[in-house]
Design brief:
This protein is α/β, with parallel strands linked by helices. It contains 21 helices and 30 strands. The strands form six sheets. A seven-stranded parallel β-sheet has the order 3-2-1-4-5-6-7, sandwiched between helices. It has a six-stranded mixed β-sheet with strand order 16-19-20-22-30-23. It has a six-stranded mixed β-sheet with strand order 24-29-28-27-26-25, with helices on both faces.
Length: 695
Amino acid sequence: MALTVLNVAFPFAPVGPAAVGGAEQILTALDAGLTRRGHRSLVIACEGSQVQGTLFATPAPGERIDRRATERAWALHRLAIEEVLRSTRVDVVHFHGLDFHAYLPDPLPPAALATLHLPPGWYDDAIFALPERGVELVCVSDTQRASCPAHARIVATIPNGVAVEAFHGAVRRLGFVAMLARVCPEKGFHLALEAARRADVPLLMAGRVFGYPAHQRYFDEEIAPRLDRRRRFIGPVGPRARRRLLGLARALLVPSLAPETSSLVTMEALASGTPVIAFRHGALPELIDHGVTGFLVDDLDGMVEALSRIDEIDPKLCRAHARLRFSVEAMIARYLVLYAQLAERARTAAARVAPSLSPGSVGLRAERVDDRAGLQKLEPQWRALWRRALGATPFNHPDWLIPWCVHFGRRAVNAVALFRGDTLVALAPLEVWNEGGVRVLKFLGAGISDALDVLVDGDDAAALTRALWAALMDDKSRFDLCELSPVPADSPLRSAALPARWTRCEVSPQLHIVGGRSLEEVVPRPLCTAVRYNARRLQREAGVRFESATEDTAPKFVEALAALHRARWARRGEPGVLADPPVAAFHREVAPRFARLGMLRMEALRVDQAFVGVLYAFSARRRCHYYLSGFDPTWERRSPGSVLIGRAIEWAMAAGDQFFDFLRGAEPYKYRWGATDRPLWQCAFEAAVAQGAAR
């Protein structure tokens, strides 16, 4: 049976063939192995990663990784995981980062594991309680497992492996010795330099200096001053250069001060027929046969002496040792067995405890809502469901859709409500359009809403969605075709395995603002500078002031927005979004409703009593939705629109929002702010086909 496995990388290091860290290299191998064997591989890793499966990229770290950058990366990683789990059926989630506990999703997935790639003492103590919550722990060596706390429950020890056949030793070795590692104090680059100097041998060192201040300071103070013509640092190397470097070297130095749990570079060196000289720390004695494939030493003096004995080691024995013990295929096979076991255990547990959730089940009933009065009767329960539901956006809130029915409700309402006892647990707010004699089922709010969805209680979301679907399919005589859009990628509809065609219909560019405290931290610097400059000019030269809408003033702000928007679009010979009287009336009703709820973000630039610009946005679920803006065309050279957007982004950050959503449309200006695409989808099916599938 094919599996879908989500591998989650450390947020700060890209994965792929050129990966530097051991955890990233193992993840890369698992991704390739899953794909090669016909499984579905999903990977969450930072931008710049290369995978053979499907990559869900989070923003790449900056040059400096401080506490603020770390917390921002954790939040973005967690959001990415939760979005994938909501939108895709995943059998197993596999974590690889040292900090994985900081971005565990809520709720935890049914089947999950974390490989401890680093010394157990480097992890938060709380991780050793995670097996009780369903996150299994895997060690990579016997030495590592023995050093775990006595109470730790380790599900397996799976030694790392490398592609042994990809490494070959040169017929003629050059005179240098090599060192490859992350550049940090515990890897001992300074000791390799000292050993090479004392043994008077050339040394080539390769590795990446990450953006941690301590790592950069270590390189600047301990490594750079010791470099010369015979002892060189060449920076990070790609796969081909890595193989060539190891194949030409007389020996590999591993002067690590850390209790190494494994060492991929040791395995690669031995696969190249290159002896390894290493400190006797951690699991290195499990990898190196002293006097046969290299030397294990206790201190710097021992390393200097071992450098004089390199020629005692037979390269053929090194390669034979690697072929026998370090196969990456054996490692992948063991993980696949574990994945299958965990997935089967989760399926069995779900089948054992999950209640029947068909509409006829005891305690669960479906009701069809055929008119606006029925929706209004549901309003109190609808509000309560919206507050706790998956799929909640401003556009399926009752204070958006009930006014929509008032101003645009010329079609037949066909909503389905699902109750457990007397509590509303799911709602599909739908209506039927007549398009050339074809009855098309669509979301209420279609046309002027930027993200529409069903509302499903977070408990048993997938099962409730299927029950909602079954209730909808119970009477196929009401419609011929269903077209539901625009649906967000994390919709419960997309994770419930419904028999429907899904097509990507639009994009909703969004700006990540998690952890940002100022515009400069989240917006490209040139645009940020221009926004600041224009804001100062507007306030200094024209006496412009900013004013926020309240529940009482919101209708007046909407009227001003309509006038400004109409004036700007008139220059293009078009009427503008708010030119239609029912549309303007709708927003005059919605804006004060959202203001009463604390969801309205509406701000104006004013000179005396005149409106120069107005921005209209909503805030819900840690996301600011930028809906519309308008400004006086005579002020265009001072960019009032950009000034208002900048203010709105800062407002969203201050409120703790995680995203600034520019909503539907791929207009170029959105990307100038640094936005990236968030896909929107359409769910389509014919009633007769869906009815058969539901049965």
